[in-house]
């Protein structure tokens, strides 16, 4: 317990840093994922190509390499931002590719006849997607979206290697101070467990309220 009690503020800063990264990156991932999923099912060919390229490139790029590209590459083009913002961009964009495919799979579960019926009533593609298709798709994608965001929370540990304050990065300071590396990592693991279980509990509540009855 000494590792935790004597360094509670350090653990607290790391924990809050991971929570912030998770929350902001999740918002970005959901917004981009929704947009790219809309592109993937759009009747406009250029938008479908955009969505396909986005998903293909990001899903097949190692996250660490994406961090290097964002944190070290963008400043070379004159875009200088705090490292935490760059980390949110890398995590959010990477995860958005997976959110996109989850949403697209949910959209594909909606019978095509419903979309055709909506269009026969004169509804535009956007109206059909937002009022007919997505509300039904949302119910079926709650569990996989939750799993994807849990993975995002754990992936945020990479940000510590790029001078971003987060939970895993606290081990460096504690190791230099001579604390037991085993107990250091145990309390780090407890912190991640709290975050991931909180996300899981939130999505369990959402699934019970809005999910598809099995």
TrEMBL record:
- Record bears the keyword Iron: no
Q: What is its main location?
A: membrane
Tell me how this protein sits in the membrane.
Multi-pass membrane protein
Task: List residues traversing the bilayer.
Answer: 15-37, 49-74, 181-205
The residue ranges of the ABC transmembrane type-1 domain are: 15-203
CDD domains, from UniProt? TM_PBP2 (cd06261)
Q: Which keywords does the record carry? A: Amino-acid transport, Cell membrane, Membrane, Transmembrane, Transmembrane helix, Transport
Compartments in which it is found: Cell membrane
Q: Which InterPro entries match?
A: AA_ABC_transptr_permease_3TM (IPR010065), ArtM/GltK/GlnP/TcyL/YhdX-like (IPR043429), MetI-like (IPR000515), MetI-like_sf (IPR035906)
As given in the record, the signal peptide range reads none
Concerning its family, UniProt says: Belongs to the binding-protein-dependent transport system permease family. HisMQ subfamily.
Instruction: Name the NCBIfam families for this protein.
Output: HEQRo_perm_3TM
Mind telling me what this protein is named?
Answer: Amino acid ABC transporter permease
Species assigned in the record: Streptomyces sanglieri
